[in-house]
């Protein structure tokens, strides 16, 4: 299975609001192959999520999965989910302080706040309605990927850039 090139910060596609996936797109063999290649790319790069614009496709779709990931050790597992035309509803005013990284900003981490409890809905890769409440790390991942579909990078959400750090320094000074 092929992997796709991950776009890096600075590429204007990462700052573009994506278009909805149409029924024509969804039903095509090409789109289904793209979904498989996007997931393969996420896994190959040790990502816990990836959004279509990160690989140059400006459509509203992302994938997420947490399974023994070396970039996020000790996180609870979360099964592979591909969400087409996702929507997120915040279910609580409670927030989490989180450290995020991004395949499009390699080698960098930063601290920000995300909603602790959300509802993620959309279509799965088979066209079935998907709706699930997420808390903790899966909620953070879903919000991060949803931001990509709206042209937002995690650094845009940081209120204090003092925690913007390279991964080696994150491991040495912040990851406790």
Secondary structure topology:
Layout: H1 23-27, H2 29-44, E1 49-51, E2 61-66, E3 78-90, E4 95-102, E5 105-115, E6 117-123, E7 129-135, H3 136-149, H4 154-157, E8 165-166, H5 167-174
Antiparallel strand pairs: 1-2, 2-3, 3-6, 4-5, 5-8, 6-7
Q: What does it look like?
A:
The chain is α+β, with helices and mostly antiparallel strands. The protein has one domain (about 10-100, about 110-155): Peptide Deformylase (Alpha-Beta Complex). Helix content is about 25%, strand content about 30%. The protein has helices at about 25, 30-45, 135-150, 155, 165-175; strands spanning about 50, 60-65, 80-90, 95-100, 105-115, 115-125, 130-135, 165. A 5-stranded antiparallel β-sheet has the order 1-2-3-6-7, sandwiched between helices. Strands 4-5-8 form a 3-stranded antiparallel β-sheet. The longest helix has 16 residues, at about 30-45. The protein starts with about 20 loop residues before the first helix and ends with a helix. The relative contact order is 0.18.
């Amino acid at each position: 299975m092929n992997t796709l090139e991950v776009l890096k910060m600075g590429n204007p596609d990462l700052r573009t609001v994506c278009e909805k996936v149409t029924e024509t797109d969804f039903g095509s063999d090409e789109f289904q192959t793209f979904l498989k290649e996007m997931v393969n790319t996420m896994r190959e790069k040790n990502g816990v999520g990836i959004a279509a614009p990160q690989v140059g496709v400006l459509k509203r779709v992302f994938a997420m999965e947490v399974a023994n990931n070396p970039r996020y050790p000790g996180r609870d597992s979360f099964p592979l989910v591909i969400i087409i035309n996702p929507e997120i509803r915040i279910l609580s005013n409670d927030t989490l302080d989180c450290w995020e990284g991004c395949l499009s900003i390699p080698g960098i981490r930063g601290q920000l706040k995300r909603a602790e409890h959300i509802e993620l809905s959309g279509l799965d890769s088979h066209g079935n309605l998907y709706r699930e409440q997420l808390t903790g790390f899966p909620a953070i991942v879903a919000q991060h990927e949803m931001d990509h579909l709206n042209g937002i990078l995690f650094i845009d959400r940081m209120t204090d850039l003092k925690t913007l750090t390279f991964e080696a320094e994150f491991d040495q000074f912040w990851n406790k």
